[in-house]
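hi!! sorry for the late reply, been swamped w classes. u asked for the two structures so here they r. pasted raw, havent cleaned anything up. first the sequence of the first protein and right below it the tokens
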Amino acid sequence: MKRNPIISMTLFWVLGLFFTAISYGNATAAETIKIGVAGAHSGDLASYGIPSVKAAELVVKEVNARGGILGRQVELLVEDDVCKPEVATNTATKLASQKATAVLGHICSGATKAALGIYKDAKIVVISPSATNPELTQSGRYPNFFRTIASDDAQARLEVDFALDVLKVKKIAVLHDKGDYGKGLAEYAKKFIEESGKASVVFYEGITPGAVDYSSVVQKIKRSGAEAVIYGGYHPEASSIVSQMRRRAMKTTFISDDGVKDDTFIKVAGTYAEGVYATGPKDTTKNPLAIAAIEAHRKTYGSDPGAFFLNAYAGMQAILNAIEKARSTKYKAVAGALRSHYVDTPLGKIKFDNRGDAIGVGFSMYQVRKGVYVQVR
């Protein structure tokens, strides 16, 4: 059959456009720098994870508007782990398969620990804004892990020093939720109290997370004669314990951690939250970069940011700065740049030590006064 030259040329031109479009689409996808954002985006602890997503979105929006990093746009891969270790491993596997260069997250220490081995094998840098378990950096097992928050030994030290030197208590009950985060903090608190010689641990116990009733634990605290409780864990259990204590007219001082230093605790505990102490990241809201980040959140989302927002904002800035300084998305280059180059963030000017801890960050003590957390030390 004789070919029509006009039809042949037209077909060739159409096919050429088709394959060019496919090639261009694949090239565009390949050119993006993919950054994972992993954490609790649903469930009881979503108030800790969602602020990190919003922080990442704001940083990336600004960077992409300036032309991106290394001439490439940044793409976010957002995955929910519900702060559960068994889900976090699936989240990590998925982000690794999607070729994430780095991950902002995870949020809870237990979930972070469960995921880190997968990221390590995949040669992916991870920066958490909130995972405070000391072992994550101090064990030396996770050279790919960094964080923009101080570790629980520093947090427990502040809680104990505050209880002994400021509140002058002599009898302390120490509770925890049996998790990597809560139990780790409680063990440090117990150790520091016993080493101080200034007070005694009159009651030490782990509770069951998610229980409806903690009356038996509350009764044990009362019988122990504890003047203060130091609790390692998260706000759902803390709000329940505090509420049950106050309903029994117990005036025992309640001291907790950054897992409780969240507005959700105050909303759930209501008036029973009044007077509760909790440690949290140092207040840097007067930093010009923090002011700008908070204002950007208000303008974009119509609300004030939640827990660990500034830590996450700094974490995302650190990731992108490291890629830019290294002029590479390769693991060793990015990890090296995180340790060798400072970056200006809402937390101040930071870089990371050889263990992965951010230099210059720390904790402060806060107290609920008239329905809001106020820094007291």
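now the second protein. again sequence first, tokens right under
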Amino acid sequence: MTHVYLDHNATTALDERVLQAMLPYMRAQYGNASSRHELGTQARKAVNTAREQVAALVNVQPTQVIFMSGGTEANNLFIKGAAGYLRPTQIAVSAIEHPCVAKPAQDLARAGWKVRKLAVGSDGRVDLNDVTAAFAEPTGIVSVMLANNETGVIQDIAAIAERARAARAWVHTDAVQALGKIEVDFAELNVHAMTVSAHKIYGPKGAGALIIDKRIELKPIIAGGGHEQGMRSGTENVPAIVGFGAAAELAAERRVESGQRIAALREQLEEGLHELGAIIFGGRAPRIPNTSYFAFPHIDGETLVIELDKLGYAVAAGAACSSTSTEPSATLIAMGVEPELARGAVRLSLGATSTAAEIDGFLQTLGSVVKRLKGLSAMAV
């Protein structure tokens, strides 16, 4: 059975043009980018070109782009690397952060840092009043994601950064889910560091970057030969980096047109969801255009995902990184959603291949599944 893929926030298919850009560096041009001979020089030039392509997408200088193995490593480098230079005070992270921010932040507690979780409202947006209140205490590090991976809700990072800078804190944003879907401008966000990743924008897995303000210093978390300006030792994954650069260039070309088309598809989807009686989370807040997070009362989200999978639709019960957990979404709990309803959450994330016909087919299938599951639930009572 061929599945209709509606889980683009988990990952995206490698674009054919990205693959073609990568292939030479997986075959004939296989040199180590640190080698001084011709093959090494070719690899170094390719890495430099990719750095320029990623930099252009987020409006920074190429030297500000530090290539990593992905978003998780980049987030860890900022949090642990900043802590390596700053005296322990307070680290403030939103209550809806991805685990690769929340967990390293919690690790700092063992080193004398106080972890402060910034509250969010029922719409999924960080409470700016709580941000201001948090900075009443000395704060060294702040990290708030630009767009939530579950709800798609966009945060006012510039406003948070303004408060953070006034408190002399270093501020970071995880922009992994926002990149390629909305404009992501490092200067306008006014942050000290930002995380991006390739596989969310039709690039390869295993490539990401930390974008940094060159006026701050981070302590590397991987020691070695001093690659990536001394910030990330280890032989560069040239094919993946080249793929990231190609994907970044494509994302810049098609973001506006693609965003408008996908936003129209989500409107079609959510009109149908409302008719079926779904509750949509974060629907009153600004969101990236491809994401819809919803639940039906008294229907388990994991059950719904499994039933839809059997019928050829790939969707998610929350974030892919926590799909094995039976606990309700921490994001929804932070938004004040009751645990029972939160356990019913299902995420759809549209992408470049999504069509109106697929949305129509999904809604018809979903309606049948929901009707059947409600009937089973009524019989059980």
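hope this helps!! also noticed smth abt the second:
The radius of gyration is 21 Å.
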